[in-house]
Write a structure and sequence with these properties.
It is built from two helices and three strands, in the order E-E-H-E-H. It is of the alpha+beta class. A three-stranded antiparallel beta sheet has the order 1-2-3, with helices on one face. Strand 1 and strand 2 form a beta hairpin. The longest helix has 25 residues. The chain is elongated and about 45 Å long.
């Protein structure tokens, strides 16, 4: 099973969470990409940590979009 937004990196195979920040949110976050070391080479632990980060970022994106709705022309 694939781990959301994560792949093992480097010699030790430590998983890293990488996810592009939506363009409309980049100024608010101050980054184009969220990049967080999951500090584990264990696939099960990485899946749990990446899923938690993805949920946190999904909530952040949803909250931002709710406060800043896109106007349709």
């Amino acid at each position: 099973m694939e781990i959301l937004y994560s792949k093992p990196r480097g010699k030790r195979g430590i998983y890293v969470y990488r996810r592009r920040v939506p363009e409309s949110l980049q100024a608010e976050v101050g980054a184009e990409i969220w990049k967080v070391s999951l500090r584990t080479a264990n696939q099960t632990e990485a899946r749990v940590k990446a899923t938690a980060l993805a949920a946190e970022h999904d909530a952040m994106i949803a909250a931002y979009r709710q406060l800043h709705p896109v106007e349709v022309a």
